[in-house]
Amino acid sequence: MELEDRINAFTALGDKIDQLTESEKEIIVDRAGQLNAWFTPESVMLSLTGIRQFLYKEVLTNWTSRYNLTNQKEKIVGVAMAGNIPLVGFHDLLCILIAGHQVAAKKSSQDPYLITLLCDWLIELNPKFRSTVKFEERLNHVDAVIATGSDNSSRYFEYYFRKIPHIIRKNRSSCAVLMGEEDAALLTELGKDVFTYFGLGCRNVSKIYVPEDYNFPNLLDNWEVYQPIIHHHKYANNYDYQKSIMLVNSTPFYDNGFVMLTASETLVSPISVIFYETYADLPDLNNKLKNHTEKIQCIVSANGWYEGSIPFGKAQQPEVTDYADQVDTMSFLTSL
Question: By C-alpha distance, which of 108, 133, 119 is closest to 36?
């Protein structure tokens, strides 16, 4: 299959997402929600909308033009998919297929339906993909692998796939940098980075860095618009559990009834909790962030003022070129 054929098929997939009827959307979100209670209709549709942004012909053409995809020798690339948010494994699948390889995908038990659905659509749009897309329980016969998991499972992946080319991803999270002068609108935008997907994604903000003497009650007041999140039973269970632990341990925290802020030098916080850490000045902030370089997926700041960051509210809107763990997946695939 030529690159142009692959681009056209994925472009048509984007068009199909656009053309879904309300009844089709209802069937999709109901099925996804039955299999994973975290996959609410809003989360599923947000994921589909995000994927759609990758699938415009101009975007795909510009993206692939950066790489040498001519005379690519077809390999079988295994991918062990995560399932923390809907369709999180799609980008790897897109990269593998658009690079001209076969994909052997091990689906996450948390997201077994949506990724299969999109592959079925892709095969309907171009039946040639039928021979290049396989779902496997074990990635035994692959030429290379991309695996996403926890810090513990990554050690297993590193050992098991040590003899073939691989990308092994570990736990990552994201953080926000505040100046203390952000207005209400900006703080509300930051809430999108915190609460979208219930905070389950690696691009969700789980920690904030703030100046000394920061006004935390003001921040929590500006997040009140996200209060309905507490009505989700799994999120509410996490909130109740984490609050009880902090009360028993006499841990100081700020609370607005659906999210808690507590001081910690750790980057990754539990669901319903956001860690904070104060900084004295910019050099101090830089040093604190440097300590977590290997664990930070992305940094957000007001209008992207902090070097290397993206604006508040944009963490869950990655471009097709925003590779997980800052490892260029396409360069890896074209080097096989």
Answer: 108
